[in-house]
Design brief:
binds adenosine-5'-diphosphate, Rossmann fold, 11 helices, 11 strands
Length: 321
Amino acid sequence: MRIAILTSGGDAPGMNASIRSSVRVAKSLNWTVFGVRRGYRGLIYGELDEMGSRSVSNIIQRGGTILRASRCKEFETEEGLLQAKRTLEAYGIQGLIVIGGDGSFRGAVALSKVWEGQIVGVPGTIDNDLWGTDYTIGFDTAINTAVEAIDKIRDTAEAQERYFLVEVMGREAGFIALEAGLSGGAEEVMVPEIHTDLPEIHKRLMQGKQRGKTSSILIVAEGNQEGNAFEIANKLKTLCGSDYRVVVLGHIQRGGSPTARDRILATKLGAYAVDVLAEGKATVMVGEVKNELITTPLEQTWSMKKPLDPYLLRLNMVLET
Ligand code: ADP
């Protein structure tokens, strides 16, 4: 079989481990493997290089993606999709592995409408916002990076007796905020999935103060309905007069060497993507749910909304008191 692999959209730590695993498993089956540079852009412009087991040496520990990733507007047009199809046909590609998030999977479904080969998605995004897998590749590294930052901020918050608002990534989902907040012992976690009641938060913080708390760390997910961390800090200042220092963690959450957990997940899913191609399946995402490797139709990965763990949410409410 002749296959191609690409990474698309926002990069995530562990994408390299996934590429490595797919390449080596495919080579063990004597398949021909191509790496596509810069995601869908590379499909349009014919940027494909043949890969062997040695081309993925020494990358399991590296963040980012050796194939590079990009956002590509042209791919969202009929002509772009047809050009990508022509490239795939010119290289005789029968199977395509797309490592990315929901945007990349929307692109994969659009491509599947014009190209006859098999497409398998691998969930690579720090946001963890895909249905069909308990965790996405990159999420564990991202929350560990966020927790390391929160721990450092707590040192100064406590020393200076201050309130801090820390904004984390996650787009429309609160997975990073909830798990980083719980692990970092945050006083409040504001996620997009749940209405943020600022007067209520203010009340709880004041109660905490009465119980002897001299500093607090509030985590805000970037997609919060009340606005970004600066806007929330302003609203809280208007409400209660207290000053909140704002820290936006930003892109540091995307980088760095993947954790062991992300490397293992990426290794399993990269290998499973090849198995799934060998089985003849198409237009599905590979994922791990309750320790079992499964496939989910690509459309479902974004049309179904993965909920935040209600137990963790309840626990967070109790522990923050
Ligand atoms: P992520 O995969 O991280 O969610 P994006 O949302 O940026 O990333 O999407 C990555 C790329 O997928 C886009 O730049 C575009 O090339 C492609 N894409 C997204 N949606 C579509 C679509 N509806 N049709 C075709 N291509 C799409």
